[in-house]
Amino acid sequence: MLICFEDVLPSLARALTAQGVSFIAVITNDAWFLDTSAPFQHLQGSIFRAVENGVPVVRAANTGVSGFISRRGEVLKTVMDENQKKTFVTGFATYDLPLLTRPTIYRTIGWMFPYFVAGLLALLTIFMIRKNIHGSLS
């Protein structure tokens, strides 16, 4: 269970999934955003956590966007009113959420992956510079 803005902190969701959870639940109070685009931006945090960790997310917000997110980051279903409005609405939704999980690179090694890619890019850059210097001397 992640509460409010904990879903924007990758390390918390990663710690949960390391314990073997089948899905992440997020409960949040988005009322202070008022009727703006901010609740949709907050929803993006939950989408990122689903993709990073390869687990579905169930999200319940008092005035924000409530719904179900697949492990691939697809918003499968949301609570909305008859005008398709998703914030400041009353209601509920049910969904037969597949609890399939898949280990991801991020879930396995965390923030080491970006460092690995940066190191690889640095080595490739050095190799290309050396190749161009030796090529121009010939």
Task: Describe the overall structure.
The chain has 2 domains: about 1-105, 4-Layer Sandwich (Nitrilase/N-carbamoyl-D-aminoacid amidohydrolase); about 110-138. The chain is built from 4 helices and 5 strands; from the N terminus they run E-H-E-H-E-E-E-H-H. It has helices spanning about 10-20, 40-55, 105-110, 110-135; strands at about 1-5, 25-30, 55-60, 65-70, 75-80. It has a 5-stranded mixed beta sheet. Helix 1 (about 10-20) packs parallel to helix 2 (about 40-55). The radius of gyration is 20 Å and the shape is elongated. The model has no long low-confidence stretch (mean pLDDT about 90).
Count of the separate structural domains: 2
Question: What is the N-to-C succession of helices and strands?
Answer: EHEHEEEHH
Tally of individual helices: 4
The backbone outline, from C-alpha atoms, is elongated
**Distance between the terminal alpha carbons, to the nearest Å?**
63 Å
Query: In the CATH hierarchy, what is the architecture of the largest domain at level 2?
Result: 4-Layer Sandwich
Using only CA atoms, what is the Rg?
A: 20 Å
- Structural class of the secondary structure composition? alpha/beta
Supply the CATH class of the largest domain. Alpha Beta
Largest sheet: 5 strands, mixed
Number of strands: 5
Portion in beta strands? 5-15%
Strand order of the largest sheet: 1-2-3-4-5
The name CATH uses for the topology of the largest domain is: Nitrilase/N-carbamoyl-D-aminoacid amidohydrolase
CATH superfamily of the largest domain: Carbon-nitrogen hydrolase
Helix content: 40-55%
Residue-averaged pLDDT? 92
Low-confidence segments: none
